[in-house]
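Work Package 4 report. The design task specified in the project plan requires that, given a folded chain encoded as structure tokens, an amino acid be chosen for each position. We show below one input record used in the internal validation round.
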């Protein structure tokens, strides 16, 4: 007997019940694909080889399973056929072959260790991980003999009512003696309700050859198979529970753990306190003694010790915050390095920037990093004071100790220790406020009569014109008469 181990991860199934354009095993739990969860878990066993069985055209699954060797199962003819498709890679392999399903992502390495130990202990051809789910539904049933050995696995659709009444189910995880594997696989037929090659049939085949088979029992939550979106949500919830428990065991305080969502790779240092409704996206590392009060969203961020983040802060990929940085409410940081002691306590956007030690970023400060075509960098030195509501138009460099006046739009570099103002000059009108108030208090000016008078004047105008004409006529008449008299 050898201790060497090969792992086969079956992931060629289309997962039709997910109703998705994406292969089932690429759906994510705690921001990590199901197949990656399985790969991470098996790596703890230090296997000699890890082989993932994928379907044709599933290049994205092959990419995701980067560290595994890839085998293509040309046609999905059942789990037995999926194992058979790895024959070329495993011919002559005499160690343990551990078969897992890509859609059973919560399995623990400890359980895998137990099933391997069971197979070796019994010198069994096959040892299976069993479970007792709340609803056995479509799971295969484990038929156990009086002596506790495993006799057969019967798929629910093919079982008798008595067999379906068995509560011990097949999780799908099994350890198989590599020396027996392909001879057992070759004996599988398709005489069943699905006309598929059932891997599960190898148990009855082994027993018929006088070989031993055994089983262990695992917690049903751990070996939950994800076949639908509803089951994906159950797996997510279960895994979140596990991540929170692990973080708390490592010395992190969650005031309302059930409201905090973590990623599989989230790291939080001890004595950090995470308030309610905080979401950790992928790739977040938090130092020790960090406070994250409530309602924050972090992804791709690295945070030093004793920083304070939020409430209501958003840290996006590339946010690197040194020790003692304070980020307050409605502050967004992206692709920026904030040195020790930097404070940005209210309403700011810091993007594509570096900020030196102890610099104070005032409320409403915006790094204008995007000109509609390209992103530009803002370099801010140490001990800089940026007044409220400053727009820093990148590319821009602000030297150490500089001050930026509140309300400024800064478009040119600012040397060290300089004061930069970039805003309209203030105008002061003496006593104007008082005069305005007096006028306002006097009430509105009576505009109506004025308007009426104007209207009347406008009406009167044509009449006046008429009278001018009349007057002119009269004057002409008079003049004509006068000159006539003179001529007489
Ligand atoms: C299987 C088991 C059942 C067990 C259940 C646990 C068989 C016959 N049945 O049923 O006893 O209770 O898992 O979840 O094994 N796959 C391939 N190629 C194929 C078919 C499947 O790679 O041709 C892969 C799938 O991608 C999946 C895994 O094998 O990761 C299981 O396949 P699935 O169709 O989900 O099997 P179940 O019906 O759930
Ligand atoms: Mg399944």
């Amino acid at each position: 007997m050898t201790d060497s181990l090969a792992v086969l991860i079956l992931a060629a199934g289309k997962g039709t019940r997910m109703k998705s354009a994406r292969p089932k095993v690429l759906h994510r739990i705690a921001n990590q694909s199901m197949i990656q969860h399985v790969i991470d878990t098996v790596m703890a066993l230090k296997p000699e080889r890890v082989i993932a069985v994928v379907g044709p055209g599933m290049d994205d699954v092959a990419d995701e399973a980067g560290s595994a060797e890839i085998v293509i199962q040309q046609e999905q003819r059942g789990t037995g056929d999926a194992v058979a498709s790895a024959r070329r890679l495993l011919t002559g392999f005499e160690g343990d072959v551990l078969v897992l399903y890509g859609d059973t992502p919560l399995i623990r390495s400890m359980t895998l260790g137990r099933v391997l130990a069971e197979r070796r202990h019994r010198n069994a051809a096959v040892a299976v991980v069993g479970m007792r789910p709340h609803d056995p539904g479509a799971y295969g049933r484990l038929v156990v003999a009086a002596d506790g050995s495993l006799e057969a696995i019967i798929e629910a659709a093919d079982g008798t009512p008595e067999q379906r009444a068995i509560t011990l189910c097949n999780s799908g995880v099994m350890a198989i003696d590599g020396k027996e594997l392909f001879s057992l696989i070759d004996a599988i037929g398709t005489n069943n309700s699905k006309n598929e090659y059932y891997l599960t049939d190898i148990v009855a085949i082994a027993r018929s050859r006088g070989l031993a088979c055994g089983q262990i029992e695992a917690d049903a939550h751990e070996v939950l198979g994800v076949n639908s979106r509803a089951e994906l949500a159950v797996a997510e919830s279960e895994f979140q529970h596990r991540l929170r428990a692990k973080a708390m065991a490592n010395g992190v305080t969650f005031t309302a753990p059930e409201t905090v969502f973590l990623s599989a790779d989230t790291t939080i240092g001890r004595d950090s306190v995470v308030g309610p409704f905080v979401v950790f996206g992928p790739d977040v590392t938090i130092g020790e003694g960090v406070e994250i009060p409530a309602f924050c969203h972090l992804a791709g961020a690295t945070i030093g010790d004793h920083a304070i983040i939020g409430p209501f802060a958003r840290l996006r990929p590339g946010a690197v915050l040194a020790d003692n940085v304070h980020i307050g409410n409605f502050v967004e940081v992206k692709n920026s390095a904030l040195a020790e002691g930097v404070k940005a306590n209210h309403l700011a956007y810091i993007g594509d920037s570096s900020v030196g030690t102890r610099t104070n970023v005032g409320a409403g400060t915006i790094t204008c990093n995007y000109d509609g075509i390209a992103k530009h960098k803002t370099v801010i030195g140490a001990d800089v004071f940026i007044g409220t509501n400053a727009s820093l138009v990148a590319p821009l460099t602000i030297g150490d100790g500089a001050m930026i006046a509140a309300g400024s739009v800064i478009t040119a570099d600012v040397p060290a220790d300089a004061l930069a103002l970039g805003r309209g000059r203030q105008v002061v009108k003496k006593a104007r406020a008082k005069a305005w108030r007096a006028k306002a208090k006097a009430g509105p000016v009576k505009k109506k009569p004025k308007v009426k008078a104007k209207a009347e004047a406008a009406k009167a105008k044509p009449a006046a014109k008429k009278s001018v004409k009349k007057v002119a006529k009269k004057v002409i008449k008079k003049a004509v008469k006068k000159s006539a008299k003179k001529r007489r």
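The pocket of uridine-diphosphate-N-acetylglucosamine (ligand 1) is lined by residues 10-13, 53, 73, 76-79, 81-82, 101-104, 139-140, 153, 155, 169-172, 198-200, 225, 227 (CB under 6 Å). Validation will be extended to a larger panel in the next phase.
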